[in-house]
Write a structure and sequence with these properties.
The chain is mostly beta strands. The protein has two helices and 13 strands, in the order E-E-E-E-E-E-E-E-E-H-E-E-H-E-E. Strand 7 and strand 8 form a beta hairpin. About 30% of the residues are buried.
C-alpha cells in the first residue's frame, strides 16, 4: 500500500489538501474533512463514496472533486478502463482548491510522511487564487502520453511515485 499526502506550504505552515492511496490496483483520492472520497478499483469501477458526515457540516474545505475519465454508467458509479495493463496515461481524479485563506479553510499538516508532495505557495504567482491537483496513472512505457495531456508542468509541481506500475503521478497547476 502506498499513501501520498499532498500539502501546500505557506511560509512555515503546511496545510493538508489531499491523500492518495494506492492499494494494489485500487486508488483512493481522499480530501480530508470533506466526508466523501473518490475511488477507482481494479475492476475499472469508479465512484464517489460518502465517509459519513463531514466533521463540521458547513465547514467543509473549499474543494471541487472531479472524476477522471468518462466511462459507462453502472449503478452509482461508472465502469472505465482498469489500470492493469494500461497502455497510456489515464486521469484518475482532479481536485480544485481555493487557496485564498489557507489558515482559515484548511487544517495544518504536522505529520511526517514517507511520501509527501509539498507545493510551495511562495513559488506560485502572487495572484494565484486556485490550484488544481491532478492524479494520474502513468505506464512506464508511455510517459509521453501524460506529457501530451498535461504540457508544461514544471518539475517542482509534479510528484511521481515510480516504484509501482502503472506509476502514480500527481501534478499541481495554479490558476
Amino acid at each position: 500500500m502506498i499513501s501520498v499526502f499532498i500539502v501546500i506550504k505557506d511560509g512555515t505552515d503546511r496545510y493538508y489538501l489531499l491523500k492518495v492511496v494506492r492499494h494494489g490496483l485500487d486508488i483512493y483520492c481522499i480530501p480530508p474533512h470533506l466526508g466523501v472520497h473518490y475511488s477507482l478499483h481494479e475492476s475499472g469501477e469508479a465512484h464517489f463514496r460518502s465517509e459519513g458526515q463531514a466533521e463540521d457540516p458547513g465547514e467543509e474545505p473549499p474543494v471541487a472533486l472531479v472524476e477522471g475519465e468518462a466511462g459507462t454508467p453502472i449503478g452509482r458509479g461508472i465502469i472505465r478502463a482498469p489500470l492493469g495493463g494500461l497502455g497510456r496515461a489515464s486521469g484518475i481524479c482532479t481536485a480544485i482548491y481555493s487557496i485564498d485563506s489557507l489558515s482559515h479553510d484548511f487544517r495544518k499538516f504536522n505529520r511526517s510522511a514517507k511520501e509527501c508532495f509539498v507545493i510551495d505557495k511562495d513559488l506560485l504567482s502572487k495572484d494565484t487564487k486556485l490550484i488544481e491537483i491532478g492524479v494520474w496513472a502513468v505506464p512506464a512505457r508511455n510517459k509521453v502520453s501524460f506529457e501530451f495531456s498535461n504540457p508544461k508542468i514544471p518539475a517542482h509541481l509534479l510528484y511521481k511515485v515510480a516504484h509501482c506500475e502503472p506509476q502514480v503521478w500527481i501534478y499541481a497547476r495554479p490558476f
